Automatic annotation (TrEMBL):
Its main location: cytoplasm. This is Tyrosine recombinase XerD. Residues 1-85 form the Core-binding (CB) domain. It comes from the Bacteria. Belongs to the 'phage' integrase family. XerD subfamily.
Length: 295
């Protein structure tokens, strides 16, 4: 089995040219599948059939793996079997007609308007770090950009006089997003009064910088949002993505059309954006149940 695993890894690296993270996921999944086979004394790869794979997937379910994890494992095994078939190590692909388990569509957690205001009011914008944090939080909620996009912003990507930012998302797809008045005010204050104080090198292009004067990282921002969530005492699990979800949900609740929200979020498929309409429907139902005398 080790020989097949080494060959598969070589195939992923040099032919598929996968990213490091994806490559590690494939290797980990197939290595765990190999251990499962060895525990059951299946040493010949030709003895792996559809029943073997289904048994493995049921095993993953039994030990409490998430549906998404099981689906990913099946995708890894499917790719591995395709490699074995192409290299003529097996004569038939045992994953043909095997369907991935359907994941439950989890609705993203969002904040109420009151909770957003509470969170965004936490930074002390009388000092440089507070001004930076206030600007970042306001900009996230005002534009719905991802945290990776936020920390990747350079000074050249913003035009506060015109009221927009230029953002480069997945697949290097560029989009222009408007910035509201409150976020513009926080951004201008940060740029005018704080950014230079945080810089160590004048040539630094990053819009948001850390204690060392270099570009803030996603991990750095994660610590910042955890700090303010704790300070605000909001009894919800808030991640850096929560403000993005809240941005989209609040826009749709207030009448924004789905296509515009899709463009601002940078979703390639509108079905990804449609999840926010479910949140809106849930809200309407909640309001109805509380307010209608015969609900």
């Amino acid at each position: 089995m080790n020989m097949y695993l080494e060959g598969f890894t070589h195939y992923l690296v040099y032919e598929k040219e996968l990213s490091k993270n994806t490559l590690e996921s494939y290797k980990r999944d197939i290595s765990q599948f190999k251990d499962f086979l060895e525990e059951r004394n299946i040493e010949n790869i030709k003895n792996v059939n559809k029943t073997t794979i289904i048994t493995y997937l049921l095993h993953l379910q039994k030990i409490g793996k998430a549906t998404s994890t099981i689906s990913r494992n099946l995708a890894s095994i499917r790719s591995f079997c395709q490699f074995l078939l192409n290299e003529k190590y097996i004569e038939k692909d045992p994953t043909i007609h095997l369907e991935s388990p359907k994941a439950e569509k989890k609705l993203p957690a969002v904040l109420t308007l009151k909770e957003v205001e509470l969170l965004l009011s936490q930074p002390d914008d009388q000092n440089a770090k507070g001004m930076r944090d206030k600007a970042m939080l306001e900009l996230l909620y005002a534009t719905g950009i991802r945290v990776s996009e936020l920390v990747a912003l350079d000074c050249a990507h913003i035009n506060l006089d015109m009221g927009y930012i230029k953002c480069c998302g997945s697949h290097l797809k560029e989009r222009i997003i408007p910035v509201g008045a409150i976020a513009k005010k926080a951004m201008k204050k940060y740029i005018k009064n704080a950014r230079e104080n945080l810089l160590k090198e004048e040539m630094e292009q990053a819009l948001f910088v850390n204690y060392y004067g270099t570009r803030l990282t996603r991990q750095g921002f994660w610590k910042i949002i955890k700090k303010y969530t704790s300070k605000a005492q909001i009894n919800k699990k808030i991640t850096p993505h929560t403000l993005r979800h809240s941005f989209a949900t609040h826009l749709i609740q207030n009448g924004a059309d789905l296509k515009s929200v899709q463009e601002m979020l940078g979703h390639s498929d509108i079905s990804t954006t449609q999840v926010y309409t479910l949140l809106t429907k849930n809200k309407i139902k909640e309001v109805y149940n509380k307010a209608h005398p015969r609900a």
